[in-house]
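User: quick one, fold this
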Amino acid sequence: MKVYDGSQTEQATDSRPERIKVGIAEYEVTTETAELTTSGLGSCVGVALYHDPTNIAGLIHVMLPVADEMDDGKPAKFADTGTELLIDEMEAAGADAGELEAKIAGGSDMLDFSEGGSGIGDRNITQVRETLTAADIPIVGEDVGGDHGRSLRLETETGNLLVKSANREDQRL
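Assistant:
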């Protein structure tokens, strides 16, 4: 008679990819199978870059359009310097900038202080687009504008970007 004491079972392994959180004014680049995530995108913009031949992926959460003279030591805080930094880091990890694709989300007008709104979200979107265009990186998917917050999950195996929003259907870019 065999007695079952639980020691005969195989240990269950968690096969989900590692989740790497990217905070406000932060970025992450990985060559590993993972999910890069960020949340709290209101007027901020999330820029996801993906290099399909190598599965190198990067995600940045920018909050203001232009660094200008504001050198606070955090280039990832700004749409211009942050997007350039992400491109440079993708290249340093082995990606060919000429083969990168971008997906962007965010840039909402969450705070309507005036008739035209705050405009920060729109300015963030415009600056991200200009920086990516200058680098010849196509934007192949986007979920921008509106008046709602977003959270992002970039799957590094596929380059898929899942955009979650309150009171809206999830978007897969």
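User: anything notable?
Assistant: DSSP finds two helices and ten strands in the chain.
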